[in-house]
Amino acid sequence: QVQLVESGGGLVQPGGSLNLSCAASGSIASFNRMGWYRQAPGSERELVAVMPTGGSINYADSVKGRFTISRDTAKNTVYLQMNSLKPEDTGVYYCNGRNAWGFVYWGRGTQVTVSS
What we know:
- Helices cover 0% and strands 53% of the residues.
- The protein has strands at 4-7, 10-12, 18-24, 31-39, 46-52, 58-59, 67-72, 77-82, 91-99, 104-106, 110-114.
- It is globular, with a radius of gyration of 13 Å.
- The chain starts with a strand and ends with a strand.
């Protein structure tokens, strides 16, 4: 059973940057899809970015040009670089992964707060 643990969240001013990390307790080599989701207070969880193996990376329209998802398979870690942060980016950010057998894993989330 692979566990996903997010880190790197915090409080940042508008226009600032954060780099979130998602560390897996085991190998993600068999994971064919990794992504980040977020949930703002009172809202449903939404897709932020998804990286399918061998496929095109997709970003939510609201973060295109500001966020970048990347993956280091050797370190079993997925990253989300977030630049030019806005107050509406505030929420709990969750890491998500799906392995080749279709099992889906979620982390517990990391809080991101964008406020002056």
